[in-house]
Specification:
The chain is mainly beta. About 10% of the residues lie in helices and about 40% in strands. The protein is built from two helices and ten strands. Strand 6 and strand 7 (about 70) form a beta hairpin.
């Protein structure tokens, strides 16, 4: 595991995440992910630390209301959130990671438009 750092565009929201130097991300085609270009690096919550910016975060929920989409209230970037697929984890936007610790990213398409077919049990598994 490597400690990666990242955050929003204006720098108010900063985080650390423990993940391999080489990892896979999901590129979801659902309405919100495809419009924002989000690349999901999903980790257990205990591998994520919000370093700064808690007060700058604003939340958005839609559809089932399970996912907690968190945006910087200043620059509006969603650098991480609590996903519906892993409500006890964190999805970090790999595009918001700082340079220097990521050696390789494999991007895998994910059919989020048909979310229920992808997660018939209602939740996904964590993976490295």
């Amino acid at each position: 595991m490597v400690k990666h750092t990242g955050g929003c565009h204006c720098g108010r929201v900063r985080f650390e995440v423990q993940a391999p130097a080489r990892f896979r991300v999901s590129e979801c085609n659902c309405s919100i992910c495809s419009k924002s270009g989000y690349l999901h690096l999903v980790v257990p919550a205990d591998r994520f630390t919000l370093v700064s910016g808690r007060k700058a975060l604003t939340s958005y929920r839609f559809n089932t209301g399970v996912a907690q989409h968190l945006f910087c209230s200043v620059c509006r970037i969603k650098s991480f959130y609590v996903p519906r697929s892993h409500p006890h984890g964190i999805s970090v936007n790999a595009r918001c990671l700082d340079a220097g610790t990521v050696e390789d990213i494999t991007i895998e398409p994910f059919n989020g438009r048909e979310w229920e077919k992808q997660y018939p049990a209602g939740r996904g598994e964590f993976r490295d």
